[in-house]
Amino acid sequence: MRFDVLTLFPEFFDGPLRCSVLGRALSSGILTVALWNLREFTSDKHGKVDDTPYGGGPGMVLSAEPFLAAVRALRPAVGTPVVLFTPQGEPLTQRRVTELATMSRAVLLCGHYEGVDERVRQTVVTEELSVGDYVLSGGEPAALALIDAVARLQPGALGNEASSEEESFSLGLLEYPQYTRPAEIAGLHVPDVLRRGHHAEVHRWRRREALRRTYLRRPELLARVELTKEDRLLLTEVVRELSERT
Ligand code: ADE
Questions:
Q1: Residue 134 CB–ligand 1 contact under 6 Å
Q2: What is the pLDDT of residues 119-176, one digit of tens each?
């Protein structure tokens, strides 16, 4: 898959694109990330990419021209997502990440300052995405979050294929707690069930703990996942257990 990233700060991506899963995906050719400096797409002779807002007010607005010129130069095929990162966008979800991971290309637009001229949305953008209800100083960290989440779903990107399989086990739920050696630290013990090595019991315990964690921390997610009959029983146990404790 190929990402074309339009940004005022290509250097922002230097370190992260060299590390870990992203670093390996790029050097093995599973993923390509092309960084484009918006300043190179302005006709302004001083490379100016922003201006004061019509109607007044504080801050600067990124001009439409560099975005339009850059997207035009990249010639995205019909159907290629052209994403603008903004807190006003649709919340990014694993579902959308999974869909984007099947595509061959996506163009990512990073805004900055007070915002981007509205006509960028009206012309080249096919979707707007937000990575959370808080305001970043630019779209770059959001673009990086998307690239990372998509990269790890590319076939061969994770050293251990089982890790993404495990994830689908808890798809839509929060992850169950994990432990590694030693069996006891600071008086805290690894749950016995995990040390006994009875596969079905381990599986059941993990499912129950994933349900418990989701119920306690993100109950709204439970409404969106498909729960099996067994899940419903486990959840009932969890809820009963919790209500007995209080
Ligand atoms: N740009 C600024 N804040 C953002 C956010 N929360 N998500 C995506 N892009 C952004």
A1: yes
A2: 999 999 999 999 999 999 999 999 999 999 999 999 999 986 656 666 756 689 999 9
**Residues 135 and 73 placed together within one structural domain of the fold:** yes
- Structural domain boundaries, residue 216: 184-245
pLDDT score for 164: 64
**Farthest CA pair distance, the chain:** 71
- Is the Cβ atom of 137 under 6 angstroms away from ligand 1? no
Distance 112 CA to ligand 1 centre (A): 9
Tell me the CA–centroid distance for residue 85 and ligand 1, in Å: 6
Q: Mean pLDDT across the chain, nearest whole number? A: 95
**Is position 161 within any domain?**
no
Nearest to 194 by CA among 186, 183, 185, 160: 183
Q: Where are the alpha helices (DSSP H) in the chain?
A: 20-27, 64-74, 94-101, 118-123, 140-151, 162-169, 192-196, 199-217, 219-222, 229-245
